[in-house]
Amino acid sequence: MSVAKKDYKRITVKTLVDMKANGEKISMLTAYDYTMAKIVDGAGVDVILVGDSASNVMAGHETTLPITLDQMIYHAAGVVRAIERSLVVVDLPFGSYQSDPKEALRSAIRIMKESGGHAVKLEGGKEVKESIKRILNAGIPVMGHLGLTPQSIYKFGTYTVRAKEEEEADKLKEDALMLERIGCFAIVLEKIPAKLAKEVAESISIPVIGIGAGNGVDGQVLVLHDMLGMTHEFHPRFLRRYMNLYEDMTSSISQYVKDVKSVDFPNDDEQY
């Protein structure tokens, strides 16, 4: 049953918990710069994720691993300057939190102070528990991330669906309960069976945001460039393309080139 969207003037971590309690689904998209974030925020998206996927879609890397903390802060600061309503969550990049809880806290503090972001997100369960607790103890909201964790791609060796086997599914459920217990305000579940994701969402009181995790969770997230059809070579089952900007932009740019070559642009009305 769908629930009418309430008019939230500003989304906070408490808003998201209330939305889950009220049965209202949560919308979440990525953004990495001021201009796109302003559009996303104005369209009514609840949460903007400044994802380490910027490593892929903005910088052209094969994985999310190369992006640095300084680069994440740069992207996040532009997004924060654009928004009026959305909650801005910023990914802690690979290497900035895994090895040392003190380093994790320093990284999270830098993001909050230098970008103005509202919360951080990091990947993993019990193996990063102490890092999460250290960040939470400093008053910084944390969103968890379980299932397919792209920062561990070389460990997995593939981007295939996770937690299909009972052992891994049980660990994921235990990790989700642990993340709720220590104080995370939400969890992203990526590329896991829909039945398992629904079970997890129903077992905890904090919101569960899915990407490739079915519709039994509390909200959905997609990479903006994917759902707008800018990254046309990417075809996962969970992706719905709402536009085909790759073709539209290519056509428009090609026309611009032709107009410049033929001296059709600028015409008499387009010059001083």
TrEMBL record:
One of its GO terms (cellular component) is cytoplasm. The active site is at 190 (proton acceptor). The keyword Magnesium applies. It comes from the Bacteria. GO terms for molecular function: 3-methyl-2-oxobutanoate hydroxymethyltransferase activity; magnesium ion binding; methyltransferase activity. It holds the Pfam family Pantoate_transf. It catalyses: (6R)-5,10-methylene-5,6,7,8-tetrahydrofolate + 3-methyl-2-oxobutanoate + H2O = 2-dehydropantoate + (6S)-5,6,7,8-tetrahydrofolate. It is found in: Cytoplasm. 3-methyl-2-oxobutanoate binds at residues 52-53, 91, 121. Its EC number is 2.1.2.11. Mg(2+) binds at residues 52, 91, 123. Coiled coil: none annotated. Pathway: Cofactor biosynthesis; (R)-pantothenate biosynthesis; (R)-pantoate from 3-methyl-2-oxobutanoate: step 1/2. GO terms for biological process: methylation; pantothenate biosynthetic process. Keywords: Cytoplasm, Magnesium, Metal-binding, Methyltransferase, Pantothenate biosynthesis, Transferase. Its cofactor is Mg(2+). Binds 1 Mg(2+) ion per subunit. InterPro entries: Pantoate_hydroxy_MeTrfase (IPR003700), Pyrv/PenolPyrv_kinase-like_dom (IPR015813), Pyrv_kinase-like_dom_sf (IPR040442). Belongs to the PanB family. Homodecamer; pentamer of dimers. PANTHER family: 3-METHYL-2-OXOBUTANOATE HYDROXYMETHYLTRANSFERASE. Catalyzes the reversible reaction in which hydroxymethyl group from 5,10-methylenetetrahydrofolate is transferred onto alpha-ketoisovalerate to form ketopantoate. This is 3-methyl-2-oxobutanoate hydroxymethyltransferase. It comes from Gelidibacter salicanalis. The gene is panB.
